């Protein structure tokens, strides 16, 4: 590197080369051990408490059942694994009695509808705050971010209060003559409403951050070149917001797929249960092994979108550097 | 600013074109009233239910659905089921605070050191661990919680820890360690290597560089990640739900869920949720003020708001 210390500039043609000058010739080369020592605690932690646990799940899933205590036993040697749980689960997913398959389809259906609804609601709001809020941006941002700091359970509780049969929603509805539906009686639409309300704050923040980064000059250029409002949006803004949309969808879809509490609180009925309920419900049962296999299957299905997220994150940080 | 200047010129030229659109729509830079209205509707939809839930925590009667007048009954007035008198409710508050504090104290140093080490130590091993760390950030919490549950109930060695406080802290640290790791790495990328090289040129050892140059530069990022971890634990539900074993180690979110789901809801739960809300807002407020203080002169208010949500 060209960073010469001042003293070497003062006496450029000195006699013997000092050790100091020798070191300056080489590019900046810090001691690697220092970085290894810094990273080590985190690496060991992740190894023991993130990597190994998934092997433990596999060992439970492929393990056997202790007939006396009615509880699953982990088998850590892959050569003695039994595939009883796996075949049971596969039978439940694809076989004739396929109740798991039904729940899986319902989960996908809920998550797709809820995440698309979230996008349709979140995008215009984020777009407005990022582009048009002007001097009021601060106040809009505070209001937009507030739900991010409000606990999920508090937000569900708020809707339980509103949706009671004698709650305020029904008071308004019966006032305008629309009757008083039993919202919390086990309906898909209530669960989807809960999912949208629960996860939209995360989506809206990602969208806002992405839309705020779009250079207004690009949009103005589109307008100057004769595009109308709608066509500027379709040809300029929308392509530029593809990345935030994808990231935002991932950040809402992944936790939605592991959700088991929203539908428990807002419906509690069997016919609104999702894949998360199936996994969580088996944990303390003799069939915990099947729950383990099921959670691994979900993980495998989600591996592709998760990898996509990881690759995108890496690419973004490399592009910035 | 510049858009208003542009809008004047465009609107004056636009009038003469004889467009068939109504006058309001002829100005291409008009204020988007429809979008603004939509945004306000969204904000009302997202915040009014919370305001009502807080109101019900002061309800005179036992109803969570009809307002019957104001009282402190559910905070301390009621002899049986107020936060003050129901041991389960107030121990949940302390449990949440305890878990948040321990998790922050452990996860932030580990995550920051991990970020520094991984970012500078190039090779297959560090990049695969970085991959694992980001994976831990996106894996659905239930899948991770199930793995933790099996580790602390079935895995030889770690099984002796059992469910309860220790399991909750270990699980929460693993789940939250990615916040400081990701935020500090992002900050390292924007800082670049010049400062480190300059300090090495001036004769600092690596440790001195770390302490005197990098740490001050990273302080806002570390602070923001600590705020996120602390409030993330207050909010956390899945991990603590799966890893708690009895009433003494059950935090607020689980109490709210299990009591409401068990059909024993009531304004006392709203009161507990309001306490939780206040805690989060105090943390967020302190985080915002602290972050603004640390980055004074460098960043505007809006950036600080976004920074403490970790979305930047």
Describe this structure in words.
The complex is a heterodimer of chains A (321) and B (312). Chain A has 321 residues and is mostly helical. In chain A, 69% of the residues lie in helices and 2% in strands. Chain A has a domain of 183 residues: MetI-like fold (Orthogonal Bundle), CATH 1.10.3720. Chain A has a two-stranded antiparallel sheet. In chain A, helix 4 packs across helix 5, helix 4 packs across helix 15 and helix 5 runs antiparallel to helix 12. By secondary structure, chain B is mostly helical. Chain B has 2 domains: 70 residues, no CATH class; 221 residues, MetI-like fold (Orthogonal Bundle). Helix content of chain B is 72%, strand content 0%. Chain B contains 15 helices and no strands. At the A-B interface, helix 3, helix 5, helix 6, helix 7 and helix 9 of A face helix 3, helix 5, helix 6, helix 7 and helix 8 of B.
SSE succession of chain A? HHHEEHHHHHHHHHHHH
- Integer count of domains of chain B: 2
Q: Count the strands of chain A?
A: 2
Low-confidence stretches of chain B: 1-18
Q: Strands across the major sheet of chain A, in which order?
A: 1-2
Q: What is the average of the pLDDT values of chain A?
A: 84
Percent of residues in helices of chain A: 55-70%
């Amino acid at each position: 590197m060209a960073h010469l210390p001042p003293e070497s500039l003062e006496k450029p043609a000195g006699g013997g080369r000092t050790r100091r000058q020798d070191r300056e010739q080489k590019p900046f080369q810090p001691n690697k051990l220092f970085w290894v020592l810094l990273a080590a605690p985190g690496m060991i932690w992740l190894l023991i408490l993130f990597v190994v646990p998934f092997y433990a799940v596999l060992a439970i899933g492929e393990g056997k059942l202790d007939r006396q205590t009615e509880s699953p036993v982990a088998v850590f040697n892959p050569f003695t694994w039994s595939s009883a749980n796996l075949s049971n689960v596969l039978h439940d997913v694809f076989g004739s009695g396929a109740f798991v398959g039904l729940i899986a389809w319902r989960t996908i259906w809920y998550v797709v509808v809820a995440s698309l609804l979230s996008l349709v609601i979140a995008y215009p709001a984020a777009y407005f705050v990022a582009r048009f809020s002007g001097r009021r941006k601060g106040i809009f941002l505070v209001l937009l971010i507030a739900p991010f700091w409000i606990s999920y359970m508090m937000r569900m509780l708020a809707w339980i209060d509103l949706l009671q049969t004698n709650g305020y929603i029904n008071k308004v509805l019966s006032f305008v003559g629309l009757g008083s539906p039993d919202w919390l009686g086990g309906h898909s639409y209530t669960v989807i409403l809960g999912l949208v309300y629960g996860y939209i704050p995360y989506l809206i923040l990602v969208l806002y951050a992405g839309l705020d980064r779009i250079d207004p000059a690009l949009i103005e250029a589109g307008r100057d070149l004769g595009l109308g409002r709608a066509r500027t949006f379709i040809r300029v803004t929308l392509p530029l917001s593809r990345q935030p949309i994808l990231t935002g969808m991932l950040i809402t879809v992944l936790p939605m797929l592991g959700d088991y509490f929203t539908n428990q609180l807002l419906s509690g009925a069997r016919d609104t249960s999702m894949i998360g309920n199936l996994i969580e419900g088996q944990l303390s049962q003799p069939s915990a092994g099947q729950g383990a296999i099921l959670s691994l299957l979900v993980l495998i299905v989600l591996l592709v979108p998760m990898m996509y997220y990881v690759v995108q994150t890496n690419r973004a940080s490399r592009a910035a550097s | 600013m510049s858009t208003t200047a542009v809008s004047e010129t465009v609107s004056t030229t636009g009038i003469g074109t004889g467009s068939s659109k109504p006058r309001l729509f002829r100005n291409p830079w008009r204020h988007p009233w429809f979008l603004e209205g939509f945004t306000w509707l969204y904000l009302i939809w997202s915040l009014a239910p919370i305001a009502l839930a807080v109101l019900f925590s002061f309800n005179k009667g036992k109803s969570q659905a009809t307002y019957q007048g104001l009282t402190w009954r559910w905070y301390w007035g009621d002899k049986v089921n107020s936060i003050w008198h129901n041991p389960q409710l107030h121990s949940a508050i302390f449990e949440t605070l305890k878990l948040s504090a321990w998790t922050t104290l452990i996860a932030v140093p580990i995550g920051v050191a991990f970020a520094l080490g991984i970012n500078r130590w190039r090779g297959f091993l560090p990049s695969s661990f970085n991959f694992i760390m980001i994976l831990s950030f996106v894996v659905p919490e239930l899948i991770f919680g199930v793995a933790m549950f099996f580790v602390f109930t079935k895995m030889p060695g770690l099984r002796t820890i059992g469910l309860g406080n220790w399991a909750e802290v270990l699980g929460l640290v693993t789940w939250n360690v990615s916040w400081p790791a990701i935020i500090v790495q992002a900050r390292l990328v924007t800082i670049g290597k010049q400062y480190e090289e300059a300090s090495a040129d001036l004769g600092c050892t690596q440790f001195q560089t770390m302490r005197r140059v990098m740490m001050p530069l990273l302080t806002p990022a570390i602070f923001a990640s600590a705020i996120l971890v602390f409030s993330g634990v207050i909010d956390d539900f899945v991990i603590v739900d799966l890893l708690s074993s009895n009433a003494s180690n059950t935090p607020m979110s689980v109490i709210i869920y299990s009591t409401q789901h068990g059909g024993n809801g009531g304004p006392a739960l709203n009161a507990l949720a309001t306490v939780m809300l206040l805690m989060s807002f105090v943390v967020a407020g302190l985080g915002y003020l602290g972050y603004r203080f640390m980055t004074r002169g460098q960043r505007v208010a809006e950036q600080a708001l976004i920074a403490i949500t970790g979305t930047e």
